[in-house]
Automatic annotation (TrEMBL):
Domain HTH marR-type: 25-159
Domain of life, source organism: Bacteria
InterPro entries: HTH_MarR-typ, MarR/SlyA-like, WH-like_DNA-bd_sf, WH_DNA-bd_sf
SUPFAM superfamilies for this protein: Winged helix' DNA-binding domain
Name of this protein: Transcriptional regulator, MarR family
Signal peptide coordinates: none
Annotated Pfam families: MarR_2
Gene3D superfamilies for this protein: Winged helix-like DNA-binding domain superfamily/Winged helix DNA-binding domain
GO biological process: response to stress
An MF annotation (GO) of this entry: DNA-binding transcription factor activity
Length: 165
């Protein structure tokens, strides 16, 4: 009989052999995808219901609102949201149709198309941000004291996966 069997019968010598002690990459990935999908669905539904905005539309409005002069190029919005330029062009088109954003070219640089927030867009993003931020905070409070650790770990993964140009 081995000494570890006598001292701790039935307990593996390698803690990684315990179920759940060391999550496999596939398990971690599944949890990230599930949490993202569930939070996205819940927040998207609430934004549609309360503010007639999709989550993507809200995020685009927020990025434009935070840009200097409340104006951003399609490329800047696409990069901030992690979307294609075509996807952002479509999203911004819906925001234009709602009167929340206008498309314009800057004098002196006719190549780049900018999205600029309107007064209605400013009011809508301000109101929707309260709902968005409160709902996200209420869902993520479940991370408890581990929130800084999870945030730091996800930031490292995000930084490592950014496309270098």
């Amino acid at each position: 009989m081995r000494s570890e069997d006598v001292l701790a019968p039935g307990i593996p010598a390698d803690p990684a052999a315990l179920a759940g002690a060391q999550p496999r990459a596939a398990e971690t990935w599944l949890r990230i995808v599930q949490v993202h999908d569930q939070i996205t669905h819940r927040v998207d539904s609430a934004l549609h219901r309360e503010h007639d905005l999709s989550l993507t539309g809200f995020e685009a409005l927020r990025r434009i609102a935070e840009a200097p002069g409340e104006r951003a190029t399609m490329g800047e919005v696409a990069e901030a949201l992690g979307l294609s330029r075509a996807g952002v062009t479509s999203t911004v088109g819906r925001l234009v149709d709602q009167g929340l954003v206008v498309r314009e070219r800057r004098p002196g640089d006719r190549r780049l198309l900018h999205a600029r927030l309107t007064e209605a867009g400013r009011e809508r993003v301000r109101a929707a941000a309260v709902l968005h931020d409160d709902l996200v905070a209420r869902l993520l409070i479940l991370l408890g004291d581990e929130a800084p650790v999870v945030t730091d770990a996800l930031a490292r993964v995000s930084a490592a996966t950014r496309i270098r140009r």
